[in-house]
Design a protein that fits this description.
Elements (H helix, E strand, L loop, with lengths): L1 H13 L4 H16 L6 H8 L8 H14 L2 H13 L5 H17 L2 H18 L4 H12 L9 H10 L3 H29 L10 H26 L5 H19 L5 H34 L2 H11 L4 H18 L2 H19 L3 H15 L7 H10 L3 H24 L2 H10 L5
Length: about 425
């Protein structure tokens, strides 16, 4: 049964069948052929995959990300970061990097961050004689942190798939996201010093104050999301709704880069993206249910325990599995298929489920820049005009740098768990 399920899934993926169709077809045919259970029950499982209060936050964050991208929030944020770091060695590169971090903390979508920041910063990097390949690799890698720093759509999916608190995952993602960001920043600094990139001109306090005043509205979004959740005012779902309404208001009335016609077009784009993610989630939850029926998590845990492996060996196994998965499938699909399996085994192995969630999402952040799927690379190629295969060699150094961040996040749990334990004392 399991052999057929796995082989049929990979054969369908190899043939280019969409992920959601591959999951659904392999699960339904396996249930029909190998079990006495009526295959029509899968229709119930597809619906159950979407019948979750926590999952309601996802379409709202997706919509909010599109609003922020089209409504002038990204440009305002970028100008503010540039004022702060442009005087450092490689100030323009660091501006692109930290702008991706801040914008990712607003929208929770890595592809949206590539499109929003990359479209503005790539021409500036090239104009200042940065290598084109380095520039594309920088933007693609920097944007990957968006799925690690809250609000993260991928973390919401992980919480839905495993039952782990989404609020706790968000808090754990702060420390991990900052480490991920600053490890990459160190490499950028090393590269610009090695290549003798000149410093920019230091901004005056007046210019910094002016840029801060123009950005204060945008910076209200993470305050609403994180402050509302951890202040006990909102659930993550409610915070998503309030922050999206807030983004619409400031885009229409403050920055005025979005009108009602533009808002309608933005809504259509967000709706299409949300539909893609939702149908994938539905099929993946049904697929995961079938794995549970076949007792795969229990059998995997038994194998790990009988082999004498400890939790450190298990974490190596998790990293390898998810790094490979990130190369061949979208992060959402990898979470919904594999997360329930590793989470069940992780509990038996003594790994904190929140920490494990952050490790999984970090791997999938790296997967955003690893071919052949590497979604960030395709989007960056589209907005910069640099061919996909010419980007790959320049991403390799960034890939190894992010592996250093992954090892730190994996084997120094307090990076992720320090803030989480402060807010959620019951989590140890």
């Amino acid at each position: 049964m399991i052999f057929y399920l796995v082989i049929s899934l990979f054969v369908l993926l190899f043939l280019g069948i969409p992920i959601y169709m591959s999951l659904a077809v392999s699960a339904i045919t396996t249930l029909y052929i190998f079990t006495p259970i009526d295959a029509s029950i899968m229709a119930q499982r597809f619906f159950a995959g979407l019948d979750s209060f926590g999952l309601m936050a996802m379409p709202l964050f997706i919509f909010g990300a599109q609003i922020m991208r089209d409504g002038g929030i990204a440009r305002s944020l970028l100008n503010w970061v540039k004022m702060l770091v442009c005087w450092l060695p490689g100030g323009t590169a660091l501006t692109a990097h930290f702008s991706c971090m801040f914008f990712g903390a607003l929208c929770g979508s890595s592809p949206a961050t590539v499109a929003a920041i990359g479209g503005i910063m790539y021409p500036q990097l090239v104009e200042e004689n940065y290598d084109k390949g380095f520039s594309v690799g920088l933007i693609s890698t920097s944007a990957a942190v968006a799925i690690l720093i809250p609000p993260s759509v991928t973390m919401i999916l992980y919480g839905v798939a495993t039952g782990v608190s989404i609020g706790a995952l968000f808090m754990a993602g702060i420390g991990a996201g900052l480490v991920f960001t600053f490890v990459i920043a160190l490499y950028i600094w090393f590269w610009v010093v090695k290549n003798k990139i000149p410093r920019g001109q230091r901004s005056s306090l007046k210019d910094i104050f002016k840029a801060t005043r123009g950005t204060i509205w945008a910076l209200g979004i993470p305050v609403i999301i994180m402050g509302g959740i951890y202040g006990g005012v909102f659930t993550p779902t409610e915070a998503a709704g309030v922050s999206t309404v807030y983004a619409i208001v400031i885009s229409l009335l403050i920055y005025k880069e979005l009108n009602f016609r533009g808002l309608f077009k933005t809504s259509i784009r967000a709706g299409r993206l949300c539909a893609q993610v939702m149908i994938l989630t539905s099929a993946a939850v049904a697929f995961g249910w079938l794995l549970t029926v076949a007792q795969i998590p229990q059998k995997a845990a038994a194998v790990m325990l009988n082999s004498g492996a400890n939790k450190y060996v298990f974490l190596i196994f998790v990293n390898i599995i998810f790094l490979i998965a990130g190369m061949f499938m979208d992060g959402s699909g990898a979470v919904m298929i594999l997360a329930p399996l590793v989470a069940s085994v992780g509990v038996v192995m003594g790994v904190n489920p929140v920490h494990l969630g952050v490790i999984v999402v970090t791997n999938l952040a790296i997967g955003m820049i690893t071919p052949p799927v590497g979604l960030n690379l395709y989007i960056a190629s589209g907005i910069t005009g640099v061919p996909f295969f010419k980007i790959i060699p320049h991403v390799v150094p960034f890939f190894f740098v992010t592996l250093i961040a992954l090892l730190l996040i994996t084997y120094v749990p307090d990076i992720s768990m320090f803030l989480t334990r402060m807010v959620y004392p019951v989590i140890r």
